[in-house]
Amino acid sequence: MNWRTPRRTHRAERAVAAALVCGALFFGTHRQAHAQGDAPLAFAVIADALTRPADEAPVRRMLDAIGRDGGIAFIVYDGNLKGAAEPCRDSVYQSRHEVLDASRTPLVLLLGQRDWADCSGAHAGAYDPVERLDFVRQLFFTDANALGQSALTLSRESDVARFRTFREIVRWQSQGVAFIGLNVPSPNNHYLTAGGRNGEFEDRAVATSFWLEHAAESARRTDMRALVVLFQGDPDFSRYEHRDRFAWLRFSRSNQPRDGFLELKRSLVKAAEIFRGPVIVIHGTDAPEPNGFHIDQPLRNDKGLIVTNLTRVALALKKPQSQWLEVQSDAQWHPPFRLRVRDVKETRAREPIAPPPETPSQLSTPFVPYPDAYPTPSSAPHLGLPRNDLPESLPAPPSMPLPASDLPPILTPPQSSPPQSSPQSSSPQSLPPIFPVPATPASAAGK
């Protein structure tokens, strides 16, 4: 009897049809994910805005102004939610939590020097900084959500069993860009010179290196187009110490204090090697900046070569209670990032975003050296690292590209005959990875 053959045939046909449908759904979802990753992205960075109770009202207005801009995906508060002269009392932190959590836009809080590291001073109430850090962790970082009235889910390092206490160290992704938020305060990353084990610093340094390097590996595997690292402290990139295997043979000791940012800078070099794409580092600085921020490429590896795919943005807003740094990114732009300082007065006028300059010679700040071309991240399958089961070891990172030129890391002379094409079609070899957008008359007047 052959009556079973048609039934088997129908079953095979249905199985093939189901496989085709599943394949179409998979490739459609994959294509949609890449399309979303190529979409434009804009986010805001604020810092040092809350220094006294009188600052709470203008900061609320600033957060409301940012919230009215539908193009801002999220806000990063880059440290110092209290002033240097304010005591580290519970009531101060609770009041600031209410201000930041009222933001309409998701807000990612990163801790800074005044938030816990300086609490041991008499002006701050002579608190134990480690105890204050634990209190801040429990108050601001209770779950995986960022602050604010809109949802933004973060991956916290506390999800890793080895680092349960480090709730403030986070990472997230948006429109094809990976973000890493660290707890790296000034001054000198809370490195204490007293005798004995520097327990808090040493444990946090290990956690920071682990998170930074594994986040870079995850971003590479998931084909992120850029990596943005944010923290509060100024790591003094000009002071990069080489590894010396025979330092213990030298009996002379330097009077210069130990660099508390040394491990961070080594991890940034390694993260840039792992990721291979554009890496943007944003941090605060006490140095005055006429434009509100400064762009350069100061990091060198242990051979003294410039890390050409890492660009630093040092932030120093003139009016932190009413100004913020807006960062725009688009995969179709060359270079892919643009910066400008915005003001509450500008948002009230509802002015459109100024168009980008037509030639590099029109920029108000000098260019920084740019590598020949960023290597395309590996096309390995999307192997997202589990949050609770990260690997103990990573594959050997690829060799790092050589510097783009022998020019100094900050200044690059403009070309004698700039290209006629627009920045969107310019070659990456002739442009830095990010450049500032000239301020509009309204924003310039508000500075």
From TrEMBL:
Can you tell which superkingdom this protein's organism belongs to? Answer: Bacteria
User: Residues of the signal sequence?
Assistant: 1-35
Pro residues bias (residue ranges): 410-421, 430-439
In this chain, the stretch annotated as Disordered covers: 348-447
Keyword Signal appears in the UniProt entry: yes
Q: Which UniProt keywords apply?
A: Signal
This protein is called Membrane protein
